[in-house]
Structure formats: structure tokens, C-alpha cells
Amino acid sequence: MEELYLDNAATTPCDPRVIEVMMPLFAEDFANPHSTTHAPGERAAKAVETARAGIAALIGADPREIIFTSGATEANNLAIKGAARYRARHGDGRKRIVTVATEHKCVLESVRDLASEGFDPVILPVDRNGRLNPDHLREAVSVPTALVSIMAANNETGVLHDLPVLSRIARDGGALLHSDLAQAAGKTALDVRALDLDLASVSAHKMYGPKGVGALFVRRRPRIRLEPLFSGGGQERGLRSGTLPAALIAGFGCAARIATRQGEADARHLAHLAEALCNSLHARQVAFSINAKDAPRLPGILSLRLPGVPPLALMEQVPELALSVGSACSSADLAPSYVLTAMGLSPEEAAESLRLSPGRFTTPASITRAADLIACAAQQVRGAGPAWNRSRSDARI
Ligand SMILES: *Cc1c(COP(=O)(O)O)cnc(C)c1O
């Protein structure tokens, strides 16, 4: 049974070119990049700095504005908690932290955690298409606000926020602006200067790089100050102590350079695959709707609702199809996706939704096969009727 991977929004495979760049840094060039008293250490340090420049170039930053972390989760925590704590410690009275209901859990929980430190978390709603109404942000920042955090692209639906407009509102309100770019970077053109961002998070494993490495963009002019999350040797300009994983970072840099060159072609490929998938499902008479259908979205993420077909029952029929229900981090608890319910879907509608995310290495032939498998499984699940669905999904819980 050949496996078919349609879960690139959860993580992408490493591009073979990325693996090639990483291998020597695990083997002969293993030295500590901070040990610059010897040649091997210098070589590792050079690999790190080359990567830093590649990542900076992808998002229009200066290399000195890139701080390496273990991933976007850590970068988001560092941005949000670091900026809030620095401001509070230096006598800034602004306590409000504003974000959006459909953000990744690591953003939402970072913002919520700050309540126990005297901050005032505000979580703004979205509309049926997963978009934030600019007026809601304007109203929120009319109260003095320390920080606004709004993602560029959503990981469950692919919905793109109107960042240029939202950025201006945050700026006019005097707040710092952070954006989680984990899904958008490398998938759509992004420029931290054009967007006037102060802080931005990226992750290697969402752009065909390795897991376990990410970065935070920290603006230099004007300089954005952060309180570090951990104490230690003061690496990464004092913002992130710990020995840098030179091999992972070199892979990340390579992935970023490939994305800079190939991002547009990837996007065309993904748009083509998504269209082919929808057309094939229609041709096979599968009833479905696209969540956030009318919003601008990333081409590689399709959140589909198949009425009467619980995704778990479908996945039981086609175990060779790797897709996801909600997002990877929350699919263990089987609760309907909070992202979809925030968009106004009922818990039942949200529970009938699944996410298909093809990637750079997905072929048109595998999309046709996925459509065949889904059509066949949906027919069996629907044919078996609601009683079967209920007892089978109960059994799974
Ligand atoms: C994957 C993802 C994260 C978490 O990134 P890690 O590098 O796995 O910690 C954060 N935000 C978004 C939008 C993501 O898609």
C-alpha cells in the first residue's frame, strides 16, 4: 500500500538539496560554531552566517536581525513574552496584548500566559472567511497597547490576513507588531520592511528544511528590545542562549535560498494541484465545500468539509492517505478545530472538516489517486448511514 502524503502544512519533507548541505556538518564539520579559536569552529560559524543571510534575504531583513531558535513555537514565545516583559520592566504602562482567535496555539497561549503577569490579553474574532475586520483591530488598539500579533497565513485554512492594512492600524495605535510567518514564508512573497513588522517568526520544517530550527526577525531600526526567555551564555545577541545547531541552521539557510528562487513556481504548482483535486472530487460526485472559500488563501492548504463524512471514519477507510483533521498539534484531542469554530462553523460542521496540503514533491498523479480514494471512502461512509458513523466514531474516542 503506497502512502500518499498530503499533510505538508504539518511538516514538509526535507528537500534533497537541504540534506546534502546538512550532512557534512553532522560529520566532519561538527565543531561548535561558537568555538572560533580554531579552524573547524570557524567553518561551522561560517556555515551559520551564510544561512543567516539566506533566511534574511527570504523575508527582506538584514542578517543581523535574524535570531535562531528551535522553531516557530519558541520564536513566537520569545517575541510575545520577550517584548511584553521588556516593556513592563522598563516602566512602560501599556498592558494590552492583542491577537486573533485563529492564531496558532503557541501564540494564543503565550498571550494568555501573560495575563498572570498583569497584562491584558485581547483575542479578536474573525469572520466566516477567517479574516479579521480592521475596525475590530482599530478599536482594540484605541486602548494603549504593547503588542499586536497577527499571523500572515493560517495553518488550518491557508487564509491570508490583510497584513498591510492591519500593520498600519497597529502602528497608528503605537503598538509593536509581531507576525507568525511559519506558513507564509517561502510560500508567498513577504517583506518585513514593506509590511513594517517589528518581529516575525519563521520555521525551517514548513519550507522543506529540517525540524528543530526556526528564527525570529527582530527589527534593528528602530531597535526592538526583548527580554530573553532563558539565561545562559548570551549567544544570538543575548536573546537566545545555547549552542547553535549548525547543521540544522545550514539546512534552514539552504531551504530559504531555494524558496527565494523557487517559491513562485512552487505556488503555481500547488495552485494547479489544489484545482485538480477539487475538480477530481467534483467529477467523482463527492459533495464538499471549501472552508474560507472567499478569502485570499495560500494555494497549498485546502480545508474541506464533507457533509456526513466524519474524517476519522474516512481515514479508517483509507489509512494510506496522510491528511489531517484540524491541525497536527490538536488532532490528538479530537475536539472540533477551534480555528473553524472561530470562523462560525458549528462544532458539527467543524468536525466534518479535513485538511489536505500537497507540497513541492506532490505529483498530479498522486492527486488523482487521492481523489479516487476520498471518493470511494466517502461513498462507503455515507452509504453506511449515520448510525454507523456514530458508533464507529464513538468507538474511536
Ligand atoms: C508549524 C507552525 C508553528 C510551530 O512551528 P514549530 O517550528 O513546529 O515550532 C507556529 N505557527 C504556525 C502558523 C505553524 O504552522
Automatic annotation (TrEMBL):
It comes from the Bacteria. Residues 5-365 form the Aminotransferase class V domain. SUPFAM superfamilies: PLP-dependent transferases (SSF53383). It catalyses: (sulfur carrier)-H + L-cysteine = (sulfur carrier)-SH + L-alanine. Keywords: Aminotransferase, Iron, Iron-sulfur, Metal-binding, Pyridoxal phosphate, Transferase. Its EC number is 2.8.1.7. PROSITE patterns: AA_TRANSFER_CLASS_5. GO terms for molecular function: transaminase activity. Its cofactor is pyridoxal 5'-phosphate. Belongs to the class-V pyridoxal-phosphate-dependent aminotransferase family. NifS/IscS subfamily. This is Cysteine desulfurase. The lineage of its organism: Bacteria, Pseudomonadati, Pseudomonadota, Alphaproteobacteria, Acetobacterales.
